[in-house]
Amino acid sequence: MIAILDYDAGNIRSVEKALLSLGQVVSVTRDAETILNADRVVLPGVGVFGDAMGNLEKYGLVPVIKKVIENNTPFLAICVGIQLLFEESEESPGAKGLGIFKGKILRIPPSEDIKVPQIGWNSLHIEKPSVLLNGINENAYVYFVHSYYVKAEEEDIITSSAEYGVHIHASVERGNVFATQFHPEKSSSVGLKILKNFIDYKG
User: Fold this and answer.
1) What is the pTM of this model?
2) Of 16, 79, 88, 127, which is the active-site residue?
Protein backbone atom coordinates (compact mmCIF):
# COMPACT_ATOMS: atom_id res chain seq x y z
CA MET A 1 0.00 0.00 0.00
CA ILE A 2 1.15 3.51 -0.86
CA ALA A 3 0.26 6.27 1.60
CA ILE A 4 -0.23 9.75 0.13
CA LEU A 5 0.12 12.38 2.83
CA ASP A 6 -3.06 14.43 3.21
CA TYR A 7 -2.13 17.87 4.50
CA ASP A 8 -4.56 20.09 2.55
CA ALA A 9 -2.14 20.63 -0.33
CA GLY A 10 -3.18 20.86 -3.96
CA ASN A 11 -2.76 18.10 -6.53
CA ILE A 12 -3.15 15.14 -4.20
CA ARG A 13 -5.96 13.56 -6.23
CA SER A 14 -4.05 13.56 -9.51
CA VAL A 15 -1.17 11.74 -7.81
CA GLU A 16 -3.64 9.23 -6.39
CA LYS A 17 -5.20 8.74 -9.84
CA ALA A 18 -1.81 8.12 -11.48
CA LEU A 19 -0.81 5.54 -8.86
CA LEU A 20 -4.16 3.79 -9.14
CA SER A 21 -3.69 3.63 -12.92
CA LEU A 22 -0.47 1.72 -12.22
CA GLY A 23 -2.40 -0.88 -10.24
CA GLN A 24 -1.44 0.31 -6.77
CA VAL A 25 -3.46 0.22 -3.56
CA VAL A 26 -3.47 3.82 -2.34
CA SER A 27 -4.53 5.53 0.90
CA VAL A 28 -4.79 9.32 1.14
CA THR A 29 -4.25 9.79 4.85
CA ARG A 30 -2.77 11.76 7.72
CA ASP A 31 -3.05 8.85 10.16
CA ALA A 32 0.41 8.17 11.59
CA GLU A 33 -0.06 4.43 12.01
CA THR A 34 -1.31 3.99 8.44
CA ILE A 35 1.61 6.01 7.08
CA LEU A 36 4.23 4.18 9.13
CA ASN A 37 2.84 0.79 8.04
CA ALA A 38 2.74 1.71 4.34
CA ASP A 39 5.08 0.08 1.83
CA ARG A 40 5.75 3.49 0.26
CA VAL A 41 4.94 7.10 1.13
CA VAL A 42 4.34 10.07 -1.18
CA LEU A 43 4.46 13.76 -0.22
CA PRO A 44 2.76 15.61 -3.10
CA GLY A 45 1.69 19.19 -3.18
CA VAL A 46 1.09 22.48 -4.88
CA GLY A 47 1.11 25.52 -2.64
CA VAL A 48 3.10 27.99 -0.57
CA PHE A 49 6.16 26.69 1.30
CA GLY A 50 5.28 28.26 4.67
CA ASP A 51 1.63 27.22 4.55
CA ALA A 52 2.61 23.67 3.58
CA MET A 53 5.07 23.38 6.47
CA GLY A 54 2.47 24.84 8.80
CA ASN A 55 -0.03 22.18 7.75
CA LEU A 56 2.50 19.36 8.19
CA GLU A 57 3.11 20.65 11.71
CA LYS A 58 -0.61 21.13 12.43
CA TYR A 59 -1.37 17.52 11.52
CA GLY A 60 1.65 16.14 13.38
CA LEU A 61 3.22 14.85 10.18
CA VAL A 62 6.76 16.24 10.60
CA PRO A 63 7.94 13.52 13.03
CA VAL A 64 6.03 10.91 11.00
CA ILE A 65 7.89 11.88 7.80
CA LYS A 66 11.22 11.77 9.59
CA LYS A 67 10.37 8.34 11.03
CA VAL A 68 9.35 7.03 7.57
CA ILE A 69 12.72 8.13 6.19
CA GLU A 70 14.58 6.74 9.19
CA ASN A 71 12.77 3.40 8.72
CA ASN A 72 14.12 3.24 5.15
CA THR A 73 10.61 3.23 3.66
CA PRO A 74 10.70 4.44 0.03
CA PHE A 75 9.61 8.10 0.11
CA LEU A 76 8.74 10.33 -2.86
CA ALA A 77 8.21 14.10 -2.67
CA ILE A 78 6.69 16.06 -5.58
CA CYS A 79 6.66 19.81 -6.44
CA VAL A 80 6.31 21.74 -3.17
CA GLY A 81 7.12 18.38 -1.55
CA ILE A 82 10.71 18.50 -2.83
CA GLN A 83 11.03 22.06 -1.53
CA LEU A 84 9.88 21.02 1.95
CA LEU A 85 12.76 18.54 2.16
CA PHE A 86 15.24 21.42 2.19
CA GLU A 87 16.07 23.96 4.89
CA GLU A 88 14.30 27.18 3.90
CA SER A 89 12.63 29.09 1.08
CA GLU A 90 12.65 32.66 -0.17
CA GLU A 91 8.89 32.25 -0.58
CA SER A 92 8.35 32.14 3.21
CA PRO A 93 11.14 33.91 5.11
CA GLY A 94 11.52 32.53 8.63
CA ALA A 95 9.76 29.24 7.88
CA LYS A 96 11.98 26.21 8.34
CA GLY A 97 11.75 23.18 6.09
CA LEU A 98 12.25 19.55 7.06
CA GLY A 99 16.01 19.82 6.58
CA ILE A 100 16.38 16.34 5.11
CA PHE A 101 18.68 17.85 2.49
CA LYS A 102 20.95 20.90 2.68
CA GLY A 103 20.07 23.83 0.48
CA LYS A 104 17.55 26.58 -0.15
CA ILE A 105 14.55 27.27 -2.34
CA LEU A 106 15.02 30.38 -4.49
CA ARG A 107 12.64 32.43 -6.64
CA ILE A 108 12.96 32.06 -10.41
CA PRO A 109 14.29 35.48 -11.49
CA PRO A 110 11.68 37.25 -13.62
CA SER A 111 12.79 38.43 -17.05
CA GLU A 112 11.37 39.48 -20.41
CA ASP A 113 12.16 36.06 -21.86
CA ILE A 114 10.26 33.84 -19.44
CA LYS A 115 7.02 33.83 -17.50
CA VAL A 116 6.93 33.17 -13.77
CA PRO A 117 5.48 30.85 -12.60
CA GLN A 118 6.77 28.29 -15.06
CA ILE A 119 3.75 26.32 -16.18
CA GLY A 120 4.37 23.72 -18.84
CA TRP A 121 6.75 21.24 -20.35
CA ASN A 122 10.52 21.41 -20.08
CA SER A 123 13.30 19.01 -20.98
CA LEU A 124 15.41 17.19 -18.41
CA HIS A 125 19.17 16.91 -18.41
CA ILE A 126 20.11 13.65 -16.72
CA GLU A 127 22.94 14.42 -14.32
CA LYS A 128 23.68 10.88 -13.15
CA PRO A 129 22.23 7.36 -13.14
CA SER A 130 19.36 7.11 -10.69
CA VAL A 131 16.52 4.91 -9.52
CA LEU A 132 13.72 7.28 -10.55
CA LEU A 133 15.16 8.12 -13.96
CA ASN A 134 16.12 4.60 -14.99
CA GLY A 135 15.06 4.19 -18.61
CA ILE A 136 14.31 7.92 -19.04
CA ASN A 137 15.99 9.46 -22.07
CA GLU A 138 18.14 12.59 -22.03
CA ASN A 139 15.99 15.65 -22.86
CA ALA A 140 12.75 13.83 -22.01
CA TYR A 141 9.95 16.32 -21.40
CA VAL A 142 8.20 16.63 -18.05
CA TYR A 143 5.60 19.03 -16.66
CA PHE A 144 6.47 21.84 -14.23
CA VAL A 145 4.29 24.26 -12.23
CA HIS A 146 6.43 26.45 -9.96
CA SER A 147 7.78 29.92 -9.18
CA TYR A 148 10.55 28.71 -6.87
CA TYR A 149 13.30 26.18 -7.47
CA VAL A 150 15.69 23.96 -5.53
CA LYS A 151 19.30 25.01 -5.06
CA ALA A 152 20.84 21.93 -3.43
CA GLU A 153 24.14 22.24 -1.59
CA GLU A 154 25.09 18.59 -2.04
CA GLU A 155 25.92 17.90 -5.68
CA ASP A 156 25.81 14.14 -5.21
CA ILE A 157 22.03 14.08 -4.60
CA ILE A 158 21.15 15.87 -7.87
CA THR A 159 19.92 13.44 -10.53
CA SER A 160 18.51 15.82 -13.14
CA SER A 161 18.31 19.49 -13.97
CA ALA A 162 16.40 21.85 -16.24
CA GLU A 163 16.93 25.35 -17.60
CA TYR A 164 14.33 28.08 -17.19
CA GLY A 165 16.15 31.37 -16.99
CA VAL A 166 18.20 29.71 -14.27
CA HIS A 167 19.69 26.28 -13.60
CA ILE A 168 17.05 24.25 -11.74
CA HIS A 169 17.76 21.09 -9.77
CA ALA A 170 14.79 19.12 -11.11
CA SER A 171 15.18 15.89 -9.14
CA VAL A 172 17.19 14.56 -6.24
CA GLU A 173 17.59 11.26 -4.49
CA ARG A 174 19.56 9.71 -1.66
CA GLY A 175 18.96 6.25 -0.28
CA ASN A 176 15.22 5.73 0.11
CA VAL A 177 14.35 9.42 -0.46
CA PHE A 178 13.35 10.59 -3.94
CA ALA A 179 12.00 13.96 -5.02
CA THR A 180 11.03 15.86 -8.17
CA GLN A 181 10.30 19.54 -8.78
CA PHE A 182 8.24 18.53 -11.80
CA HIS A 183 4.98 16.58 -11.69
CA PRO A 184 5.43 12.97 -12.82
CA GLU A 185 1.68 12.43 -12.46
CA LYS A 186 1.13 15.09 -15.17
CA SER A 187 4.07 14.08 -17.37
CA SER A 188 2.39 11.49 -19.60
CA SER A 189 4.22 8.22 -20.27
CA VAL A 190 7.55 9.60 -19.02
CA GLY A 191 5.99 10.49 -15.68
CA LEU A 192 4.27 7.13 -15.34
CA LYS A 193 7.61 5.42 -15.98
CA ILE A 194 9.17 7.50 -13.19
CA LEU A 195 6.35 6.55 -10.80
CA LYS A 196 6.73 2.90 -11.83
CA ASN A 197 10.46 3.12 -11.04
CA PHE A 198 9.54 4.36 -7.56
CA ILE A 199 7.02 1.55 -7.13
CA ASP A 200 9.58 -1.05 -8.24
CA TYR A 201 12.36 0.23 -5.96
CA LYS A 202 13.29 -2.47 -3.43
CA GLY A 203 16.01 -0.68 -1.48
Assistant:
1) 0.95
2) 79
